[in-house]
Structure formats: C-alpha cells, structure tokens
Amino acid sequence: MAMEYEPIMAYTDEIQDSVSKQEKHLRMNIGNADKIQDYDDDSGELSQLALQIYEPTIANKGEEALLIPTSNSRHLPLGPLHQQQPQQQQQRLVSLDVFRGLTIVLMILVDDVGGLLPAINHSPWNGLTLADYVMPFFLFIVGVSLGLTYKRVSCRVTATRKAILRALKLLMLGLFLQGGFFHGVNNLTYGVDIQQMRLMGILQRIAIAYLVAAICEIWLKGDDHVTSELTLLRKYRFQWVAALVLTIIYISLLYGLYVPNWEYQIPDATSSSAPKIFSVKCGVRGDTGPACNVVGMIDRKILGIQHLYRKPVFERTKQCSINSPDYGPLPSDAPAWCQAPFDPEGLLSSVMAMVTCLVGLHYGQIIVHFKDHRDRIRLWLIPSSGFLVLGLALDIFGMHVNKALYTFSYMCVTAGAAGFLFAGIYLLVDICGYRRPTLVLEWMGKHALTIYILAACNIMPIIILGFYWKQPQNNILSLIGIGT
Description:
The protein is mainly alpha-helical. The protein contains 16 helices and 8 strands. The strands form 4 sheets. The chain has a two-stranded antiparallel sheet. The protein has a two-stranded antiparallel sheet with strand order 3-6. Helix 8 runs antiparallel to helix 10.
C-alpha cells in the first residue's frame, strides 16, 4: 500500500504522548544511530566491472527526518528520534566519477583528433604527450576505487573469488573487443584467426592490474588503527613492499636480461610468394630502444610475435616514417625493425601498470581513514609531488619517460599528475560544490565502460556503417568523412 508523506508539524498533537515513552528507550541506543556503515564488498557486484568501480556507500550522518509516513500507528518518530531506524542514504564520490569521465573524454579526443594533431597523439617512443596520460589515469582510478570498495571485507576468500571472476570478465571482454574480431570502420567484415589473435590490450591490462591490487587490498593489510600518516603506512606496509618488489623485478629484467638477435616475417599482400623475412641484430643488455628492448623480447617469447599489436607507435619515429611524428612511408634507409609487431600493453610493461594501480589504492585508503578535507588533500599532494619530481629526475639521468615500455620514470610522472588532477577535481566538486559544470563528465564517468565499448572500440561507427543505401560506401558516416 502506498504511503503518503506530510510535514511533521501536522502530527505534533497526535504523537506528543508517545514521544516521552520513546525517549527513554532511544536514549540508550542513540549513540549507535549515527555510526557510518562501512561497505562490505560481499554485498554486491561492481556495476560496470573495473572501469565502473566506485565507492557505493558513504552514509550521511546526523540528518533529521523532515517527513514522516502517514499510517495507523500512533507511535510515530519525531525529529532526531527517527534515528531509531536510520535511513542512511548512499552517495557516490562525485570527483571520482568526474575524473573517470574526463579520462574518457581525453581518450576519445586523442583517438579521433590525434591523427590530425600528432602533437597530442602517443609519443613515437621516448617522451610524454597528452594521449600518454590516458592509460595510467584509468589504472589510478581503478586503484582509488578498490581502496573504497574493499575497506571492510568480511570473508577474504569470497572477496578474492569475486575479484578473480570480475578480472576474468574484463579480460574476456578485452579479447573480444581488441583481439581483432572487429576489423574497423574501413572493413565491415568480422572474425579473427585465433592463431593471429592479439592477446593483450587495454582492458586486459586493466584486468590484470585490478586483480593484483584487489588481492593486495584483501590480504595485505594489517589490523592497525589509523590515527596518523605513520600508522597508515604501518597498516599497509606489505602493500608498499609488494609495489617495491614489482618495481625491482621490472627494472632488473629491463636492464639485466640479454636480448639476442631475432627475426620476423611479413606476408606479401601483393603476391602469393613466400613471406618476407627481416632480421634484427641486437646482442645487447639494457637497451631501451624500439628494436632490442626486453619488453618486446619477453612478449615475443611468451605470447608469440603473431599475437602482438601490428601497428606500434615506433612506426612514427624518424627512422621509420618520412612524415614523423605522424605515420608515413618508410625512408629508403629504414632499419629492419620498423615493421615488426610490438604490443604497448605487453607482459613486462604491465608489471609497472600494477604499481600505478597500487599507488591509486593508497589514495583511496586516505579517503577511508581521513575524513577532514585538508588532511586528504595534503596527504595526496605530498606523494604526488614526490612522484613527479622523482620521475622527471630519472628522465634527466637517463631512465627515459616511455609509455610503450611503461618505464619507472613514466609511472612516477603519470601517477604524480593523476594525484594532482584528482586532488584538484576533489577540491572543486566535492568541497566547493561545483557539480553543475561537470554533470556531463560525471554522467560519462558513471557509464565509462559502455562509452569505451561504443566509441573508443569503434562499435557504434561499425553498427552505423552496417546500414547503407545500395552500396556500402553510401552510409551516414561517409557523408561527414568518417570511415572513408
């Protein structure tokens, strides 16, 4: 039966007799009424996999009931006494949605405009451009979200099982979207040879980093009560040890493994003759160039060169393109490695992506344990400044900022930038209340995975191209120059 709501004052005379009886009973329990409930991950699924992870519950505290239900009962709560049955309204961390939406906009911008403005497209090799911030921003956001989602776990085994299932779902979705099944807006055919399927990609990397960070948050935290920055570090000290171990493993392999000579072949599309074979001479250690780096070698050995990305960013370097920093014809003296497959979301480079996610996890833990806005911003800006300075210093001294290799310096610079940007958005949106200018970004942040699938993976353009007039070339997108 529907319940109508009327102002409290209309019932003051009716319930005045019951108030005194309730006060005595509620006085003993009133201290428990305004406790903030923690979110238990076991209570529900994440709404949109890894890209849609957010903090579902920050209960409002100390709100008085302004309306009461009309019913046959004469024992109606009044004002603060309504806390006997607190209705703790759930709210999202809006700044995190806005940050996620801003990253989606940035991704769409560089994907669609990067071809026209190479300056904002991914750096051909060393260096940092606007497009190179997208991946670490997503990983940072996932880390922050995990810190909020797993702030209280009742059963670690159950939470771990759910985290593994979510990561597998995201991994399979990535294989479907980026493994080559959809051929693009210029080729309306579909299907992929499993022997040539790309195994790694953006969603796959996010799934791996999400799983590692989730396991760390579920299992690697102490029982210390957090009252200061020092106790915060003590509580999560094993997570920092894990991040340090991952960093040491990455740097040791990147600069310590020997890279031998290798070769690859490219089928000749113009004839049925045997594929053309290219030999790349290396025989070095510690090389971070496009040809002889350990990141590519590990992917070729484990994944197989046929399962790697076939249009790597180093095709836009001066050695490989006469139109550098844009794609273009090969120079006459182009080296043999220019047409070799290379995956920017490879196995070894994903190790440092895990560290970015763990850094974001720390920022989420600050939200959980510190309620004062000034403390949160201060504790965010200190490590952000440190990461930024360290990354720039490493770049100066030879450990170059490189997105394709996901170098330690690149992780530091992008994690520091993400921390500064998140703190700024939090200040504007959650503290100062400037939500109206960011409503579109907030909406996009809440539907990030859907937008990514439809827009960034070209699913929507492909669907639109499927409807044409008489000839496939006569479609809506061709009228505005897309897909031609």
